[in-house]
Amino acid sequence: MSYPDLHEIPLASIEVGNDRARDLDPAWAEALSALIAAQGQLQPIIVRPVEGAFRKYSLVAGLHRLEGVRLLGRETIPAYLSAAESDDAARLEEVMENLGRYDLIALDRCHHLYELKQIHERKYPQAKHGGDRKSIKRQSLPLDPDAPEVFGFSEAVAEKVGLSARMIRLAVSIWTGLTLETRRRLVGTKLAAKQTELKALSGESPARQSRILDLILGDEHSEIENVAAALAYIENGIQPTALEKRFRALSDGLKSLPEGSFDLLLIENEDRILASLKRRGRI
């Protein structure tokens, strides 16, 4: 989508809604402010005039750029004016703009594709249930108000966002499988950037999701860093590492040796045994 006119909009005139498709990451906004200070703002934000309000605008896309400029103490920001005529159209602009950015992590991508599906189904309700498979034609994305009905959301949007239909279906499935509380707790964590972890977590019940995050994000079990390790603990307790298993096997083997064989082993390793005793102050 092209925006012919660029404007300098006062930051004080821009409203940011509470239902953003992407939450603010303060660390990324701070990093972005440094980049903007060094090389300028390469990509303007997108705003939409607030109906019935004089020179007031709502943010459509560019939350982190807006905050980065705010951190620099500037009073205005370069912005394009959106021509979106509805909340859904504005949301679609936000989602599509963010999907094209390199810094979108796995959790955000799942959220954006879910939002895109919701908008798609509100505009084309027959697509939610598959529609008439014999008569419906496919298209790249229903942005055109005169576009024909569509059959499959994933197939329709795949080309536009550069992902396969399978990946889109997986992302939507992950987002819907995660509870609201789980999504909230994932924000800002390493897990949020790893789709494999999100997929594993989304397949668990709400209670298990909560328990898994308690184990990974809590301080009691620092050795548990991923969903697989958390599940292993829930099922079997903490599992010994490969080194711990090897040490236990050797220790058990020594204990089972006859006295004569044990003496021979000590003689074979006498120098190392004496050196160890000296290091530990035993001799």
Order of strands in the sheet with the most strands?
1-5-3-4-2
Task: Say how many strands there are.
Answer: 5
Overall shape: it is elongated
Rg over C-alpha atoms, rounded to the nearest angstrom: 28 Å
Q: Which H/E pattern describes the elements?
A: EEHEEHEHHHHHHHHHHH
Helix proportion:
40-55%
**Hey, roughly how much beta strand do the residues contain?**
5-15%
Distance between the termini: 80 Å
Low-confidence region ranges? 131-151
Note the main sheet: 5 strands, mixed
Given the structure, what is the number of helices?
A: 13
The tally of domains stands at 3
Short description:
The chain has 283 residues and is α/β, with parallel strands linked by helices. It has 13 helices and five strands.
Walk me through this protein's architecture.
52% of the residues lie in helices and 8% in strands. The protein has 283 residues and is an alpha/beta fold. It has 3 domains: 6-85, Conserved hypothetical protein from pyrococcus furiosus pfu- 392566-001, ParB domain (Alpha-Beta Complex), CATH 3.90.1530.10; 93-203, no CATH class; 242-279, no CATH class. It has a 5-stranded mixed sheet. The chain contains 13 helices and 5 strands.
Keywords, separated by commas or semicolons:
about 280 residues; alpha/beta; Conserved hypothetical protein from pyrococcus furiosus pfu- 392566-001, ParB domain; five-stranded mixed beta sheet; 13 helices
